[in-house]
Amino acid sequence: MLYAVVDIETTGGFASGNKITEISILVHDGESIIQTFETLINPEQEIPSYIEALTGINNEMTSSSPTFDQIASEIYDLLHDKIFVAHNVNFDFSFIRHELSQCGFELQCKKLCTVRLSRKLLPGHVSYSLGKLCDALNIKINNRHRAGGDAAATAILLKILLNSDEEGLIAKSLSKGSKEQALPPNLSKSEVEKLPLSPGVYYFKDQKGKVIYIGKAKSIKKRVCSHFTGNNISKQRQNFLKDIFSIDFEICGTELMAFILEAAEIKRLWPENNRALKRYQQKYALYAFENQKGYVRLGIDKHKTHPQPLYSFDTILEGHNLLKLLIKEHLLCEKLCFIQKNRTSCTAHIEGGCAGACLGKESAASYNVRVKYAMQHLKSMLPSFALVDKGRTEDEQSCLLVEEGKFYGMGYISPSTDVSSTEDLKSALTPYPSNDYILHIILSHTTQFPQKRIAI
Description:
One of its GO terms (cellular component) is cytosol. This protein is α+β, with helices and mostly antiparallel strands and 456 residues long. It has 18 helices and 16 strands.
């Protein structure tokens, strides 16, 4: 079995926007190095000053060096039939695979990560960065942060790991069924093995235990593993994977509950890598306010947190349709409701549908009585229901409660619970903050599965 111990220096931290400036490949037979390849590479782009300060490699040094395409064939021949070894292997592999693919070579080979192996076979170290781990193991690194020096140190580390592997962990990780080398470098395989195949929510945490991403899933384990597949080489993904140290989860009875819990937890914890739900909000809402003459006016405006809206909408057309319904049912003034703007009086007054509030012919007190009834009518139009579905076990049911158009909460109840009693339900459910995103998910689900909805 031959290993290719690899180290590279680059112009930046992610393959899609950066290039390799130096590469070292040491072919290792498990006992010693039997072949060496090392060269600077002309990246054909400027080397940033901070990279030059770290590695000592500058534009002048690489200007006369070969470009990657000039040595791609040689690199591919060295790597394609060997086990690719590196410290944080997915970083080096992503760069080399990307650059080889640009030259027409598709690199497919098994990988070994000396970070992951060191955590398993050499437990108890404070840090598993190459420099600190080598210091702890008395491995001398000549020319730190250069490809040749770091690769030579990694080769010595590989020999230590091979000699320490009394239980055959390396062979297991290289087996066809093992997905371990696809895992982030700082995530233990046991963290993935403990995950259930149930619906629920999972939490990726960094080294300090801070939640950096929250996701929902129909099958937690399958969804988590899908994060680590594919060849996305963006900076965001590379940094994201590097920061994952542990995973927590919460099982839910249904995928719908997982959707809702995910939305609520993102709002509560605000993880840095959840972006889509942070930006979600309804665009328009119906508001009521009293003008200087004492008339209560209804109107559609862009959604705001304050004042509290009477109802929210995805589109302004949806809002206007509801407002026109209230106007017709309760003989409200279209001008005071901002449906008509460029008239002295609304057209409904001429036709007898408005008592003249727009002209001051109807008192504010009289008009406001009908506005009050319209608002009560709107409240009665808002649904109150329970959504009952399967639980986490056969001895329970999941239950979500919507009360007057607002999501109250969810939880698990006995199959014998009286669902028609709101107070009994509330005592068994966990309250959650309601928002339009969650309500939209619930209403969409009840439209698709009306048999699960129980009116209250």
